Amino acid sequence: MTMRLFMATLSTETNTFCSMPTAMSGFEEFYLRHGTATQEAPNLMTEALHVWRAGALAEGWQVTESLAAIAEPAGLTTAPTFDALREEILSDLEAVGGADIVLLQLHGAMVAEGTEDCEGNILAAVRARCPDAVIGVALDLHCHLTAQMCEAADLVITFKEYPHDDATPRAEELFDMARRMVLGEIDPVMRVFDCRMLGLYMTKEGEMARIVREMHELESRPGILSVSLSHGFAWADVADLGARFLVIADGDADLAYTTAETFGRCFYDRRRVLTVEYPTLGEALDMAQDEEAPQPVVLADMGDNSGAGAPGDATFMLREILSRKLPGVALGLIWDPIVVRICCDAGEGATLSLRVGGKTSAFSGDPIDIEARVMRIASGLGQHLGPGLEPLGCMVWLRIGTDTDLLVNDLRTQVYHPEAFEQMGIRLAEKRVVAVKSTFHFYAPFRAIAVRVIQVATPGGASPDFHNFEFRRGGAELWPFVENPVGLGVLEIHASSNSIEV
Q1: How much is the pTM?
Q2: Residue 464: C-alpha distances to residues 13, 116, 285, 445, 492 (Å)
Q3: Helix, strand or coil for residue 174?
Q4: Rounded CA gap, 305 and 285, in Å?
Q5: For residue 492, what pLDDT is reported?
Q6: Model confidence at 495: pLDDT above 50
Q7: What one-character-per-residue DSSP string does 477-498 give?
Q8: Strand bridging mode 244-250 / 188-194
Q9: Assuming Cys at both sites, which of 229, 282, 302, 365 could form a disulfide with 315, CB separation 3.0 to 4.6 Å?
Q10: CB-based contacts of 292, cutoff 8 Å, min separation 6
């Protein structure tokens, strides 16, 4: 009998403190395909579909490809939007009469009006329609790992790396486990340890790099199929907030239990070492001014990272840079469709009085009035994130004075790569300071051109100082808000029987 594989992806990350809703327009302008994503080059969240299709065809399976929908993080997804995207996936599944294997690439931190756990809701609906199928889901590590997700799915894994440059191996891992499970070669059993921690964890160096290596080492032990750490998405006031450690063992509940608990408690015990104190805006600019080098200092405007649901139009860093009269600065991307429209109407070479940024909410600060020359206008450009190009919308290069360059665009997106500046004509090697609106995805490409990279705890909707946000649900009960949080423990999940005990 030929196996039938059904696959789809749906991804957005919800900052519940953000006032901007995530509507269908957010998916339409960023990425929305109806069963055709694998006909195009992959991006971070569609790479899994390419891997799964290739694997299934190599096995001689039938493949049904459904929705691929990605939106830049913002506030709550509107109920009609979530309902429409969910129903498209379910309708496609019903139209082909179900499947033997269902593989989904979801984010894990999508929150909609009236639905706090969107991914769990989708998985439960898939399980109801395919009670005997093997259901696997790959999640971003900034997910809320919920009981509903683990109850409905047989296999749950997350990215291990941030930035997420391990999308391909994680997709391959999930496919292999699903294949082995449907053939009766393995009997996965999942356990989840709730670490009761709220944090922002970078995996490329230091203690977190060691933890990732330890996770891989655990997977080499007999009986352990997969190990994942859900970091949680910190800017969401939801019940299931916080870091959770997931272990999948082969038919051995005790092994999964003890491994999850042992490593989870070890992670909790390292919480102070894992916590990074980022410099304030003033401190970071002092460091940048003190640095004398032929290469630029790169400053990350963490608080206004649209990839974490911030508006992308905050003016705090720009205002301080202009106030200090720092020479040789490039800053971007500032999301301001109004300024883009004015510049497009005026054309390249025009000198304009513009009111930039600060339009969305209190998290954005106040607008800044500038006199600037329109150096270049361009559309259709992209920047690399992993294997694919991420769109940049319509971009405008503005010059203030003789050597302060701003990039303004009409599509909310964080900065990933120096090419966002360079392809517009801004020579970063000639700059003293390069300020990017991002948290960590920018790091490796910009580190290659910088004398120093400083991640800055700027104000904004994605500030790494979590005390700036009012948590009323799960977050208020986690470390660091509570010194010794109650509730550390293991969720006992029996994936093969789709039941859960807490």
Answers
A1: 0.94
A2: 16, 23, 17, 22, 32
A3: helix
A4: 18
A5: 54
A6: no
A7: GSBTTSSS-TT-EEEEEEGGGT
A8: antiparallel
A9: 365
A10: none
SS3 342: helix
Give pLDDT, residue 487.
85
Residue 201 and residue 162 in contact, taking contact as beta carbons nearer than 8 Å: yes
Q: Is the pLDDT of residue 497 over 80?
A: no
DSSP assignment of 203-261, as one string?
-SSHHHHHHHHHHHHHHTSTTEEEEEEE---SS---TT-S-EEEEEEES-HHHHHHHHH
Mean pLDDT computed over every residue of the chain: 95
Share of the chain above pLDDT 90, in %: 91
Q: CA neighbours within 13 Å on the CB side: how many for 317?
A: 38
Contact status, residue 182 vs residue 101, Cβ threshold 8 Å: yes
Each residue's pLDDT tens digit, 325-369 = 999 999 999 999 999 999 999 999 999 999 999 999 999 999 999
Distance CA 235, CA 13 (A): 10
CB 101 within 8 A of CB 134: yes
Instruction: Tell the residue number behind the tokens 């010194």, with chain if given.
Output: 483
Q: What is the pLDDT of residues 112-170, one digit of tens each?
A: 999 999 999 999 999 999 999 999 999 999 999 999 999 999 999 999 999 898 999 99
- Taking the C-alpha atoms of residue 371 and residue 373, their distance in angstroms, rounded to an integer, is 7
Q: Which CATH architecture has domain 4-274+487-501?
A: 3-Layer(aba) Sandwich (3.40)
- Contact indicator for 275, 195 with CB cutoff of 8 Å: no
Provide the pLDDT confidence category of residue 500 given band limits of 50, 70 and 90. very low
